[in-house]
Amino acid sequence: MATEMTEEATTHFGFNNIPVAEKVVRVRHVFDSVSKRYDLMNDLMSLGIHRLWKRYAVHKMRLQPNQRLLDVASGTGDLARLMMRRMDDRGQVVLCDINGSMLQQGRHKMTNIGMVAGMTWVQGNAESLPFPDHCFHAVTIGFGIRNVTHMEQAITEMVRVLRPGGQFLCLEFSQLAIPWLQPLYDVYSFKVLPEIGQWVARDRAAYQYLVESIRRFPNQQQFSTLLSKNGLGQVRYDNLSAGIAAIHTGYKV
Ligand code: SAM
After folding, report:
1. Is residue 157 in contact with ligand 1, taking CB distance under 6 Å?
2. What is the spatial distance between Cα 135 and Cα 206, in angstroms, rounded to a whole number?
3. Angle, alpha carbons 139-28-119 (nearest 5°)
4. Cα separation of 92 and 117, whole Å?
5. Domain parsing of the chain, residue ranges
6. Ligand 1 binding pocket includes 243 (Cβ within 6 Å)
7. Is 214 in the pocket of ligand 1 (CB under 6 A)?
8. Nearest to 202, CA basis, from 36, 71, 20
């Protein structure tokens, strides 16, 4: 019991250990700080490649018009927008994020491109989703699961709201599958990215956190095991750009 309490008392935030209750506050601060420059930073950091990853992820999904989909940790709504297009603009996409400023940026962006019908914006925590059981045909989470405090709780919640047989998809940074690229990737991650963060978003620490949180995240196999243990079957993953990111998919059993 004492051990359990000790383990629960702290969690990681990048490379630091912090009290569990503090993580959600710190993560919120990160995204409050970068929300206005979030899309621009994604393009700069990845040279636009994140767009291809997202497109490929949605392309892999079995979507049909008139489905009801949930994008958790939706941020500014890239995955949601692509999913709606994939349903020929006929369907429902719920975008759920804990951070009001990220949702606001996304809503503004979507309104500007005339994408309003069928989109519902909900502020909520992935760890206690404000939706009934079994109500979505598919649930996605893009670059979000790494940021939640209790990852298994968030997975359980996403599975809970899925219909039986419904598809789960997670797009997330992962571990490089080509070892000789590692030194280069390390220099880029630890030296270049925080600099770009400082210059563009005026927040070096937020991008230092990004890099560190990627290193703390389970590798492809470990994450697959976690998904299988929490109610998903046929779990598979696809490496993207040599494992810099990966797409994990599974179906609610
Ligand atoms: N999905 C978007 C994308 O791919 O561009 C945004 C990803 S952004 C890196 C991570 C998002 O996760 C942020 O918008 C943040 O507010 C959200 N987030 C962090 N913790 C969360 C939680 N516990 N529940 C829901 N959203 C969360």
Report:
1. no
2. 34
3. 35
4. 8
5. 27-178+206-252
6. no
7. no
8. 36
Model pLDDT for residues 58-102, shown as the tens digit of each residue: 999 999 999 999 999 999 999 999 999 999 999 999 999 999 999
Judge whether 237 and 220 are in contact, CB under 8 Å.
Answer: yes
Is the pTM higher than 0.90? The answer reads: yes
Specify the fold of 27-178+206-252.
Answer: Rossmann fold (3.40.50)
Query: Six-digit token pair at 116?
Result: 């309003």
Neighbours of 3 (CB within 10 A): 7
Q: Determine the residue of 95, 96, 99 to mutate for testing ligand 1's pocket, defined as the one with the most ligand atoms within 8 A of the Cβ atom.
A: 99
Type of residue found at 200 = V
Spatial contact of 56 and 240, defined as CB atoms under 8 Å apart: yes
134 φ, ψ (degrees, to nearest 5) = 55, 40
Rounded CA gap, 170 and 200, in Å? 27
Pairing of strands 68-72, 92-97: parallel
**Would you give the distance in Å from CA 82 to the centre of its chain?**
15
DSSP annotation of 217 reads S
The C-alpha R_g of the chain, in whole angstroms, comes to: 17
Query: What is the model's pLDDT at position 8?
Result: 59
Tell how far the Cα of 199 is from the centroid of ligand 1, in angstroms. Answer: 22
Buried b (16+ CB within 10 A) or exposed e, 163-192: beebbbbbbbbbbbeeeeeeeeeeeebeee
CB 37 within 8 A of CB 207: no
